[in-house]
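sry for the spam today, last one i promise. struct tokens for design, 179 residues
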């Protein structure tokens, strides 16, 4: 699958600016991690882009719609990672791709939420500041902190370094992401 094909799939199911920005931000972070780990950055980017593609159009069926579509297209590795991006679904974590998507999804969205409450947005945002907000249960209350912890543990990365990695990628793309 090409990134263009993935964009067409995303556009067919997702219209909201917020969810499209989330898809793009996770795409960018996953692409960077793919490069970092010596994996296929295109495959990782597409996984990040499509992980919530069916959420807006089919919230009750998420992620089954996108997973089925990807499986029909022969994209089993991407489909499996997307089927596993929430621990409570009970899907096995088989690959680094599976673990990275879990580790990046919620935390990338959370980091953007941190930017949105700061007058300077992402400029000067530190891992320490993000970690402080993580401890504040009322901030971005829908973000499940246990999902972030599980992802970081499965991926085997240090939380501070992981947050710094995400911030760096977001900062490099701040204009496009409007941060």
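last one done:
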């Amino acid at each position: 699958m090409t990134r263009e094909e993935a964009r067409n799939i995303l556009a067919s199911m997702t219209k909201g600016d917020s969810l499209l920005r989330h898809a793009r931000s996770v795409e960018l972070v996953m692409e960077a991690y793919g490069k970092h780990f010596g994996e296929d950055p295109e495959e990782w980017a597409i996984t990040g882009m499509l992980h919530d593609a069916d959420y807006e159009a089919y919230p009750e069926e998420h992620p089954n719609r996108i997973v089925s579509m990807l499986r029909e297209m022969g994209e089993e590795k991407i489909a499996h990672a997307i089927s596993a991006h929430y621990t409570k679904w009970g899907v096995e974590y088989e690959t680094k791709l599976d673990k990275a998507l879990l580790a990046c999804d919620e935390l990338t969205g959370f980091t953007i939420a941190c930017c949105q409450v700061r007058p300077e947005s992402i400029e000067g945002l530190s891992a320490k500041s993000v970690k402080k907000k993580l401890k504040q249960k009322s901030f971005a209350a829908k973000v499940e902190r246990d999902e972030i912890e599980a992802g970081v543990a499965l991926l085997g990365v240090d939380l501070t370094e992981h947050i710094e990695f995400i911030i760096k990628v977001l900062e490099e793309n701040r204009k496009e992401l409007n941060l």
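The chain has one domain: 3-177. ok im logging off now
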